[in-house]
């Protein structure tokens, strides 16, 4: 089973229609869009989609921030660019990121759900989506319209997630937890995550520490990584990074993750774009499952 994990595509569109910016401070949004235009190379998006298709994945998982300011034009553009991956809705799962709820109106009118709700098993979180007899994605959503980029998973959602796994007819042997927000970050990114963290990460971590071996697919910090958080030794935390990002610190090339699941083994390849060509880099090749 091959899963391609994408995140933080951040389609952007300049807009001067202040009426669309109700619920945010227009100057803030315009500054954001101006910054994004420099940081995110939108002209590369179709090539990224073509690269994903060339890998022939069984499933594509996108962990949020498809847009920048959650405006209708951005959702329409994101859908258009991603259309080649969306032909079979059984083979793609899409979650929201905080940017997909950037305005009050986008949040209250469920703009993300209108655009991409077909690509989740249901519109409310949590949910469990079976990919095959052994593999399932547990979808969590900590995004909300808020004046900070910080997220929070409602306690009721966590309670339901616990029940979903407990009640599942046979816990999926290969569990993939999908969330826009990571619980923890590797040292070079700890400060960045602290500023835009999941406020109740401790609560989520305390539960996940008890669910056994799992993969945790996330985004939000625009850097690809594969690591095991100190407090979660049974978790392989995977961040797909942002495929169009121009990293000013040049710590990481942009790209996405190709995750091969073979029985209990997991091989993770960072499909990295070095500015000229794709460079596949093996991040993980180890036994992850089977200890539960
Ligand atoms: Fe993002
Ligand atoms: Fe984000």
From TrEMBL:
Entry keyword Iron: yes
The entry's keywords: Hydrolase, Iron, Metal-binding
EC number: 3.1.4.53
Gene3D superfamilies: 3.60.21.10
Any Pfam family the entry gives: Metallophos
Occurrences of domain Calcineurin-like phosphoesterase (ranges): 1-223
GO molecular function per UniProt: 3',5'-cyclic-AMP phosphodiesterase activity; metal ion binding
SUPFAM superfamilies per the UniProt record, alphabetical: Metallo-dependent phosphatases (SSF56300)
Similarity-based family: Belongs to the cyclic nucleotide phosphodiesterase class-III family.
Protein name: 3',5'-cyclic adenosine monophosphate phosphodiesterase CpdA
Organism: Paludisphaera borealis
Gene designation: cpdA_2
